[in-house]
Amino acid sequence: MGEGISGDAGLAAAPYDQWVLLSPAGGSPRPPARYKHAAQVVQDKLYVVGGSRNGRSLSDVQVFDFRTSTWSALNPARESNQLNHENNATGGSFPALAGHSLVKWKNYLVVVAGNTRSSSSSNKVSVWLIDVQANSWSAVDTYGKVPTARGGQSVSLLGSRLLMFGGEDNKRRLLNDLHILDLETMMWEELKSEKGGPAPRYDHSAAVYTDQYLLIFGGSSHSTCFNDLYLLDLQTLEWSQPDAQGAHITPRSGHAGAMIDENWYIVGGGDNANGSTDTIVMNASKFVWSVVTSVSARDPLACEGLTLCSTTVDGEKVLIAFGGYNGKYSNEIFVLKPKARNLVQPRLLQSPAAAAAAASVTAAYAVITATDEKTRDIVATDDFDIKRAQPAKNGKLASRLAEVRDENSKLKDKLDMANLSYSELAKELKSVQDQLAAEGSRCQKLESQIAAARKRLESAGSLENELDVLRQQISQVEQTIATTQRRKSGGVWKWVAGSAEVDKQLPNRKWKRRMCYSFEAACLFPVTGCFLKILLMVDLAKMPPEIILFIFLGGGTW
């Protein structure tokens, strides 16, 4: 980094492609150090609006005059018709903001979005105008589809319109939506672009090139920093990722960028661990990255949340960097005067239609380069004819471009139909697979049932044998029961009289029981006892002598 300079003379004498500290004049107070502010150069003055320091958002407007190298605080008054306007402001003071965007338009500085800790903050994007000539500010009513409030977005000026991309809303949700604000009507509109755009992100950088393309570089999610590059064709709203060449660019977020001609300069940023020390530049017509210069790891420029603007001094473009944070808040101004870089032929437009147009332009360059001096003399002589023929050539190119775009549209339709057919086939395949799985499960159950039936059939023979044995046992039991019933069917007389069969089966013990019964009956009923005695005598021949004696002795007592 070069030595400090001061004033316009110092800017004009600054070395090329080297950052130099711009020191204020002696005794000039410096503004509070900050980051996540916004800045723009208007009429040789650097305007710095808001920012954050120690977790507190700032509401001041600081101005650095390059002609006098002095800082001063601008205290714009709120327009009288705005005193009751509700738009994130208290009384007449400008609202405290961080992570907002600042765009120069006519005599105004347009402040868009940003994070505010105001209790009256809206859930929609707010817009303010600072009139640098009248030293006043006002909150602007916007209409249409107003985007949700956010911070860390990118805002780029395209004529009288603002292009806003991405950011982080008040609930820390990352965004990748694209909105456009017409500054003449203050009407918001959401642009629905084709698929393939950048992932949701914040703290990225953006630039408009040739009023036709929007470039998006880097940024961060909550866990990852990016180094990708996206290109949006503002006519077709098609996103593409150019195949960038040249130096390897590390991921970064919180960096700042500025476009000078076709060169997009990027400074600062970090990857959540270290600050980026390289100042890089990309030729937007060729997509070639290169490193302009580098600083040390602890340099104030190796930081996040800084701003980068450009201005013209003595006919030369100069880059102005201010503020940032790398463990320490900065309030320094650094300037870099980039050297002129060779123009190269365009390599934009990634769609098929764009490729056809680019091929035509490349062919035209080749024809002009290959033409010798004699041919150029003839061309100079017939300049009028060439000018007259040029519209016809442009008409052919436009016609060819329209044909290619039409063909591209048809191919997209076919691709959509193919995707739809593929989706339906995939659903049908899934249904068939589910049916096959169900049938397979049912087959397994049937196989297990068949195996169990086979086992039961194998054991059927042994079951038959067991059944025969059971039948024999049942027959024997039935015979025994029948015999028992026949024995019982004789009644009391048979029991009293007895029989030879009974005599064989019943021992003398049973006769003794009979005699006891007879004795008891004789005691209770004498007549019946005599009768029983007579009956018993019918079979006295078969009785033992002692029993007969007992009967008669007992009968004597009757």
TrEMBL record:
<dbReference type="InterPro" id="IPR006652">
    <property type="entry name" value="Kelch_1"/>
</dbReference>
<feature type="coiled-coil region">
    <location>
        <begin position="394"/>
        <end position="487"/>
    </location>
</feature>
<dbReference type="InterPro" id="IPR015915">
    <property type="entry name" value="Kelch-typ_b-propeller"/>
</dbReference>
<feature type="domain" description="Acyl-CoA-binding">
    <location>
        <begin position="392"/>
        <end position="486"/>
    </location>
</feature>
<protein>
    <recommendedName>
        <fullName>Acyl-CoA-binding domain-containing protein</fullName>
    </recommendedName>
</protein>
<dbReference type="Pfam" id="PF24681">
    <property type="entry name" value="Kelch_KLHDC2_KLHL20_DRC7"/>
</dbReference>
<dbReference type="Pfam" id="PF24922">
    <property type="entry name" value="ACBP4_C"/>
</dbReference>
<keyword id="KW-0677">Repeat</keyword>
<keyword id="KW-0880">Kelch repeat</keyword>
<dbReference type="Pfam" id="PF01344">
    <property type="entry name" value="Kelch_1"/>
</dbReference>
<keyword id="KW-0175">Coiled coil</keyword>
<dbReference type="InterPro" id="IPR056819">
    <property type="entry name" value="ACBP4-6_C"/>
</dbReference>
